[in-house]
Amino acid sequence: MLGYALLQVALDWLIYMASGRNFPKSNTNNTIDRVNYDALDKAKLAFIAASKKTLDFAQGFGFVPKEQLGASANLFSLNLKPYLKQANNDLYVSLIAEGLGTADDARPDDLSQSELKQFWHNIGIKTISALTNDAASAGLQTILISLYLPTSSPEKIFNTSFLDGFTAGLISGCQTVGCVWISGETPQLKGKIYEDKLDIAGSLFALTPPGIAPIDGSKLSAGNKIVLVASSGPHENGFTTLRALAATLPNGYRSKLPDGQEFWQAINAPSKLYTPLVQALLAANIEICSLENITGHGWLKLMRSKKNLCYHIKHTLSVPAVFSFVQEKASMSKEEMLKTFNYGAGFAIFLADDINAKQTVAIAKKLGYEAIEAGEVIQSTSNRKLVVEPFNVEITDEKFLLKKS
């Protein structure tokens, strides 16, 4: 048997050699697969240079020692004097983690360099929005942000269009909000992320201004007035639906809306940042009972409180053209749109009474936001309910499990 086995091996050898192929090279001669530190370091230097431009954006709350920037752990000196002057017994802070999702994938493959730069600029602002608008919904002022940007192929992702556009958008967003981009991480994760993809996530540190209590929704009650603040479009939510729709359109993301915009441009519009509005309202002593950032779940977020209340919307903001386009092309009902998108209303403010509601709309207008007195909160006898009168839509909380205590 051994002789037969050796003969078979010899025959296999002869057949293999006759084929003209060479044996695979030994692994010791292969190029070793390494992390591309050249591409990563180039990106890190660009990010550090951009972050330095944000160092003065939170001056009212402290500073970053410049000699520390670029270290493994960057420092921020928090100015406690205003809090001590107010004799605050408690300092309310929050650490929030958030991800952008797939908004950065929603684009055509043939964007020009200038279009790519604009696209990534707006993604930078959307990234700031995804983080800071949630903090604003508790009345918090974001002070510091940190980003997590893993890739598989940094040499493909961190190109000039990305670095120039994305960092410019981040700087602009930080300036609007009043926060510092203090740190980040850019790991290369081969085998865990598609080669042409990037994941965008981050975290923030936020706190209440001196003498201000956080807005936790505990004061929300029947009789409160609802002010809705306009969005610029989808912001960061509903992109699973939007990307699926793009795949069905004859011209994909290049499809034209009635207003002349291409689909990718409309859904890529830079998000509204609501922190400046919330902080202005708090500074003006507006009596805010609750705040909601209208993101995932769409308008269902209006009834996030666990209290059995009905949110009666009598007036709505104008609906951006992109939502009318999506509703038509995807054959979605008004109710489906409201459950999926912000549908033109990116932020909700619940006020104690009519006077505070009118003052809120006036302050919003002064700051460049579009806002309306949209409705009121009334008592519900059974469960949470949303009634949108202009759209003839009534939604209960049967399938909305989120509850804010």
Uncertain segments of ≥5 residues (pLDDT<50)? 1-29
Number of separate strands:
13
State the CATH superfamily name of the largest domain: PurM-like C-terminal domain
Report the span from N to C terminus.
Answer: 78 Å
Helical fraction equals: 25-40%
CATH names the topology of the largest domain as Phosphoribosyl-aminoimidazole Synthetase, Chain A, domain 2
Major sheet attributes: 7 strands, mixed
Count of individual domains: 2
Structural class: alpha+beta
CATH C-level label of the largest domain: Alpha Beta
Task: Write down the Rg.
Answer: 26 Å
Question: Key features?
Answer:
single chain, 405 residues, alpha+beta, 60s Ribosomal Protein L30, Chain: A, Phosphoribosyl-aminoimidazole Synthetase, Chain A, domain 2, 2 domains, four-stranded mixed sheet, 12 helices, 33% helix, globular, disordered N terminus
Structural overview:
With 405 residues, this protein is an alpha+beta fold. The chain has 2 domains: 37-207, 60s Ribosomal Protein L30, Chain: A, CATH 3.30.1330.10; 225-396, Phosphoribosyl-aminoimidazole Synthetase, Chain A, domain 2, CATH 3.90.650.10. It has 12 helices and 13 strands. The protein has a 7-stranded mixed beta sheet with strand order 8-10-7-11-9-12-13. A hairpin with a 4-residue loop joins strand 12 and strand 13 (393-396). Helix 2 (37-52) runs parallel beside helix 6 (160-177). The longest helix is centred in the first third of the chain and has 24 residues, at 113-136. The model is unreliable at 1-29 (pLDDT under 50).
